[in-house]
Write a structure and sequence with these properties.
globular
């Protein structure tokens, strides 16, 4: 396990604030700055307790966390198990679904294929929910790289970005919290001249408007540095103000932009 706390202190309040049912957290990344480490920390925080406090995030004796279903179109199960090991996460407590395996390793080319993807994710969340109900736990759904499915799919008569937005919205009604990790590179978001760019921008923008919290990582504006991996910006999303004052509404969460470094052992250092 890394020497640093799994959840760096400057970010503790953002990972510890209780989220209202149906909320969505959006993680965005770019080609040179991966959000993989953020996904792992959302899994860590969810497993430790359903509504953790900063002081309890590192409490090894707490074990009343959520049931987590992680669906990834970018990394296989073995890669996630290795990441879990580095953070001291028990891999048996996370349901990992390989998104590409849902499609037989090939991009989906039919509406039926998309429906099969949705059914398999629904099956995984239903199993997790059944077990969670018996233990009075919540269910957290994490979707990593869903934009890859949107980009790789061209189905006649179906706007894949609209289907994906609808699927996310549907799952938000069935689980307590949803975390979605997407690429938000400027060429994909700003150019919008090809069908791929148009679909991607529409999907990311649609997810952004559903988000209560947005965590974005990007490269340094000045280029590559040996001891800095990138820049993290954390803020409320468009839905955040609506959530404020409901279950979430206690202390104010301060918008942050910090530098971070991801070490080989999985640890993360934050520089304010």
């Amino acid at each position: 396990m890394p020497l640093q706390p799994a959840i760096p202190a400057p970010l503790a309040e953002w990972f510890s604030a209780p989220l209202p049912r149906g909320s969505l957290t959006l993680l965005t990344s770019v080609l040179g700055a991966s959000a993989h480490w953020l996904v792992l920390r959302h899994v860590f925080a969810a497993l430790r307790c359903s509504a953790p406090s900063p002081s309890s995030l590192e409490d090894e004796e707490r074990d009343d966390g959520a049931a987590v279903v992680l669906v990834s179109w970018l990394s296989g199960r073995q890669a996630w198990v290795e990441g879990f090991r580095k953070l001291g996460i028990d891999a048996s407590k996370v349901t990992v679904v390989d998104g590409l395996q849902l499609q037989g390793g090939m991009p989906t080319k039919s509406k039926g294929g998309l429906e099969e993807v949705e059914r398999e994710i629904e099956k995984a969340t239903a199993i997790a929910a059944a077990g969670a109900a018996a233990e009075l736990k919540r269910v957290v759904l994490v979707l990593e790289g869903l934009d890859f499915l949107v980009a790789a799919t061209e189905t006649e008569g179906v706007r894949v970005e609209d289907w994906a937005l609808g699927m996310v919205l549907g799952f938000r009604e069935r689980v307590h919290t949803t975390v979605v990790s997407l690429a938000a590179d400027l060429p994909l978001m700003q150019a919008q001249t090809t069908p791929l760019e148009i679909r991607h921008a529409a999907f990311v923008t649609g997810i952004m408007y559903q988000a209560g919290v947005i965590m974005s990582v990007r490269e340094l504006d000045t280029g590559v540095a040996r001891d800095i991996s990138g820049v993290l910006h954390v803020c409320r999303g468009p839905a955040g103000e609506e959530e404020k004052g409901e279950e979430r509404g206690q202390e104010y969460l301060e918008e942050k932009e910090v530098l971070y470094y991801v070490a080989a052992d999985g640890g993360v250092r934050i520089f304010e």
